Write the structure tokens for this entry.
Amino acid sequence: MGLSSTLQSLLFFLGLHGICRAFVQENCTNYKLQFERVFSVPGDVAMLNTTLVSPDVFNFRTVPFNITWYNSKTGQEMSNQTGRILVRMETLWILNVTLDDDGEYVSVLRTSSRCYRQATKLIVDLPVAGECGRPRKASQDLTHGVSDMLNCPLNNYISKLDSYNVTSSLKWYRVSFGKFLGCDPIVDGDDGYIYRDKTKLTFKTVQSYNNCSYTCTLTFTLGGITGSLSETITAVVRDEWSLVPQVHEPANEIIKAQKGSSFRKRCRVFVPGFNKTDVYVRWLVRDDFINPSDRVNIEKRSWDQDVPKKGVWKEQLLTFSELREEDFNMSYFCRVYSARGSPQGYFTLLPKDPNTILPIGSVFGSVMVLFLISVAIYQIFKIDIVLWFRRAFQVLYSNKELDGKLYDAYVAYPQPYAFGFSKEVEAFALHTLPQVLEKACDYKLFIAGRDCLPGQAIVDSVEENMQACRRLLLLYTASTFSSKRHTSSTSSNNNNISKSSDSNDKSESKTRDSSCDSNDEVYPDTRQQLECVAAMHRALLEGSLKVVLVELEEITPAQLALFPESVRHLRKKQGAVCWWKNQKTKQRWWMCMKRREDEEKGGKDSQLSASLSPSSRFWKEMRYHMPVRGKRMVYPEKTALLSL
């Protein structure tokens, strides 16, 4: 008996020596013993994998290779044994584990030029009391009061079987200890348990009684043998819990900053949970952690929150004291590390666009100020500007004679024996006006009391002469329209302009035989009325004649109220050229000018007094409203009726 035992030991050492000598002769690269161990119990299936088939070892996708397994205790090469051993390249299956299988197994990988070896350790333990409990247990936490799950540690086995197209099934058991020793099968859907993703056992709501051990058993058929293997998990129910962290800032945004300026950006993370602190927040750029330096600083702080949701806020403030060129066009990530996941947020830092708002604003403001000043200057000096432009650019205007008109303006004023007649108005119309506009400015005027033909009917005279004129100068004073009869007559004609033709016909029938120099007392009022009605009709309704109101004396609001509505409307719309205003404001200046002109002419009176100078304000306004010399005026034949 002793001799037999000694002989077996001798053979073992000789075999082991032969294997080691062969490895040395082959000059195999030794990767020694794997860190991970394989645990099993008698009767289970054990799977041993070598890690030599890896790109870190050699290019296994292009270089042919073969693998041989050896039992280090016997020195024998492992080969397929029905119901016991199954060799599949990098995987060694022990289909029915016994206590004698405990030990190390060596895998040798050979190529045409190289050799590699690695050892894998199988530890076989005696089973614990109970049908499904395993002596080697994994520990996993469950969170009390919420939905949670356990993960079966047999993923590698399931993946390998799937690669063989081998069907497998997995069941969960609840391990009972003490008086009720045994294993209780867990049925999918019962008592709040749910099977998920084949390897996960989900608890709808974790309770205190879930604080026990659970075993997952994988069953399959391989090499003609139906086998199984199990893993036991110790579930620890804890009141400490946390959900998936929420990154509130940064919010995946683009931020622009000025080069050389300081910059700050914070990362704010909320971790829903209770007494759970294993959550870490870090700033990264190019997948590298950002470490504080002289120029870059990270400030950290955290605080608890009870409402509206219980949890912890974690904040990290990233600060650049000075931004440099290398800081731009980069994405900065705030990443959270936790057992529940690793959410992240980021921002991209870009250089700030050139500040064009200030220059544009300055230019725009300058343009606006210049525009307002120009408008103000134009409003103040509009008449002077327009008159200068007409004089400087006469070539731009066509010949005024081409419009078929004989006169530049028709002068209408109260005739002798008419209401509102005054010698001052007559003198202004017959002497002052022609002296400046005709003699000094070369305009052609038609003056009713001067240019009408003897024996011509009033209606014909007014109509024909107005058609031959480009403007109508309506001279008036406060008393011109103050006659009750005249006012009512004129207002009636202007308020109901649609009946003006009938009124003209009646006036024509009354005055058809009256001549321009008739002494009939109705003639002056009739002419004045016809001139006013015809002028307003052409100005307001037809738009064929421009009427210039010449106000010879100041009009009070009470006096203005007695004017015909059409005259008031025209006065409000375009204003009036005020002779009286010119007389008041220029009186002192006229006196100085007259004295100066008298001195220049040796004491003789000047041909034009200061008030008759074409360069005075009043006469500039008159020239502004008169037709442009050489310019052809084209008026629309009809315009929309005005409601007077």
Notes: Residues 357-392 form the longest helix (36 residues). The first strand starts at residue 29 and ends at 33. The chain has five domains: 9-124, 137-239, 242-351, 358-394, 397-625. Residues 242-351 form a domain with the Immunoglobulin-like fold (CATH 2.60.40.10).
